[in-house]
Amino acid sequence: MTVEQQASPLTGDRAVAPKGLGFLLGVAHRTRRRAWEAKLADLGLTAPQAALLRLIAAQPGGGVRRLARELGTDPMNVQRVAETLIAAGLCEPRHDPSDARRRPLYPTDKGSQHAGAVARRAKSAERDLVEALGANCYHALLAGLQTLVDHDRPTLDPADTFPRRARDKESS
Questions:
Q1: At 84, which CATH number?
Q2: Overall number of domains in the chain
Q3: Is the pLDDT of residue 131 over 90?
Q4: pTM of the predicted model, to two decimals?
Q5: Confidence band of 137 (pLDDT split at 50, 70, 90)
Q6: pLDDT tens, position by position, 45-79
Q7: 3-class secondary structure per residue, 85-111
């Protein structure tokens, strides 16, 4: 990443700031997440909780590993978020008669209602983005981001959603 004198994307001030797609993707992610979480506040959900709850409601009976793959995160994060949803009464683990170790997740009635509300708000948020960006820019950005995800996916260890940092590899 290069660093040069430019206007900060956050404040507009001229300062030494990183420049590049990766940096702006991070800024955009944080900005969109804060806006999204504001829309979820009355439901008492964070963005990760909302994403997992929607997935559990759409695909009931999924295990933590499959849910993690679907969400593009690691199983430990999904497990932590699932525990908060279980504590809130929004989903429940059930026993799998074919595998005693497996505890698939299912939405509760309250969880299904919340997932429906999240889905409606997500649809509205996407409409707002189309309006803000224009349809052509929205679809081009969506396609470009999918291309980036597909490009980076093969660099990940298939057994691990996120590659370990260089210093982690050196110590193992």
A1: 1.10.10.10
A2: 1
A3: yes
A4: 0.77
A5: very high
A6: 999 999 999 999 999 999 999 999 999 899 999 99
A7: HHHCCCEEECCECCECCCCCEEECHHH
- Name the percent of the chain lying above pLDDT 70: 80
Burial environment of residue 6 by CB neighbours within 10 A (0 to 12, 13 to 18, 19 or more): middle
Measured in degrees and rounded to the nearest 5, phi and psi for residue 147 equal -60, -40
**The pLDDT of residue 171:** 42
Structure-token pair, residue 30: 């944080």
The length of the chain is 172
**How high is the mean pLDDT of the chain?**
85
Asked, for residue 6, whether it belongs to a domain, the answer is: no
CA angle (56, 30, 123) in 5-degree steps: 45
Which pair of tokens denotes residue 151?
Answer: 């490009």
Domain for residue 2, yes or no? no
Please state, in angstroms and rounded to a whole number, the distance separating the CA atoms of residues 152 and 56: 26
- Whether residue 126 lies inside any domain: the answer is yes
Handedness of CA 135, 46, 159, 65 (dihedral sign): negative
Residue 167 lies in a domain: no
Domain extent at residue 59: 44-156
Could you tell me where the DSSP H helices lie in the chain? 21-40, 47-58, 64-71, 75-87, 109-133, 135-152, 166-171
